[in-house]
Amino acid sequence: MVMGASKAQALVYRSVEDALMELNAKDKGRYFLCTCPECKEQEAFIYKNNIGLIQCNRESECGERLLLRYEENQMMPDLVKEEERGVLTRKQSEQLKKYTKVIELFVNNMSSDQLDESYRGLSRETTTPFIADFSNEKGVKRMFEFGRDLFPKDYSTNNWMCKRNIMFPIFGEDGMVDRVVLRSTIEPGIEPKELQLIVNPSRDTRDFFVDISDDGKIVVIGEALLDTLSFREIDKEVGVLALTGAAKTRKLCEYLVQHKEELKGKKFVLALDNDVAGRKATEKISRVLDDLKLTYQPFQFPSSINDANEFLNEDRAAFEKKWNETARFFDRKRKGRGEMFSER
Question: Alpha-carbon torsion 282, 286, 289, 293, what sign?
Fold first, then answer.
């Protein structure tokens, strides 16, 4: 946790691990890709051979260089890559089953003032069974205690982590919890606003959300769960495929390939963020859908709107109208990669 910044532009953390967690660090081999403390973009670097410096790669827009200082010994934490994960112990396997049951109980049955009143413009009907609310720091602490053997460290003693009471669980093919995405309504301004933790330490875990019924005709692919649920809010039949970031398209694309037979006959709406990263992710997913000969079209945002959840909250009527126009457009037989509608 950041304790303060000196006039020499030094940020002080309790430990290297706390710094990496707060800066939303992603292991890239020789370096960590982090959220820049100054501009808040995920384009800053900490090199493993120089953990005392973070530098933003957005030279023209930011380019900030900040010293990092640690209260504890400056040793690199023992970070385990997903591909190096082993087999669950018997104790971990049993705990994962129990932990999954507890999370399912919270997302499906537990009362929540925050979710019952509407969370980010989403009704409780929509957020069930995608979002759990542990209400307060005591509830979050108990959640971490219950999964202590599954997480890489004991987060129940970390006050900063225990403020993250909102959970989006990601379930694997076997129905067990693979990951959890954590946010906060206890301290809404906490940075980074979203963190991911791997719950199943034995495998290459799923990093996207999926909820597609056999009867639903249209599936929305979005950059975040809240964005795809914004479509579910106005159309209960829509299927959901939600990334956990624009850069994380690989596993979702693999899912599309692996389930191409079940997905035949579905129509896809690509509703990633209205920015450069979102457009790049749209291009990657479009290529896969083209190869699979699946029908799709992009969702067109107003120029002033960045994502679907923002659209829902800014102007629900306009959002619903645009969605209805998009859904009806599938009935028009326009073809060709250069047009909105692609059917190969």
Answer: positive
